[in-house]
Amino acid sequence: MNGLGRSLVTIGVVLVVVGLIISLGPRIPWIGKLPGDIYIKKENFSFYFPIGTCILISLLLSFVLWLLRR
Question: For this UniProt entry, which segments traverse the membrane (predicted)?
Fold first, then answer.
């Protein structure tokens, strides 16, 4: 049961962090405009792939999960 409780707390913390990022995301000016983010806009077509932002979020989540495992 101890492992289950720890897992539920970890999932809850991750959900809170993701919720904050989603709700505060538009107010953070550098999210989505990092070097490495691909944005192509043409007349009737636009393509956006945030590689740099994905890498940053992945690093942050990995660090948080590493801290929680210690």
Answer: 7-25, 45-68
Q: Is 47 helix (H, G, I), strand (E, B) or coil?
A: strand
Most distant CA pair in the chain, distance? 57
Give CA angle at 26 (64, 22), nearest 5°: 45
Contacts of 37 (CB under 8 A, 6+ apart): 48, 49, 50, 51, 52, 53
Residues 6+ positions from 32 with CB-CB distance below 8 Å: 25, 48, 50, 53
Q: What is the pLDDT of residues 13-51, one digit of tens each?
A: 889 988 887 888 777 776 677 888 888 899 999 998 889
Give how far Cα 37 sits from Cα of 3, 11, 48, 55, Å: 38, 28, 8, 10
- List the domain range (segments joined by +) for residue 59: 2-69
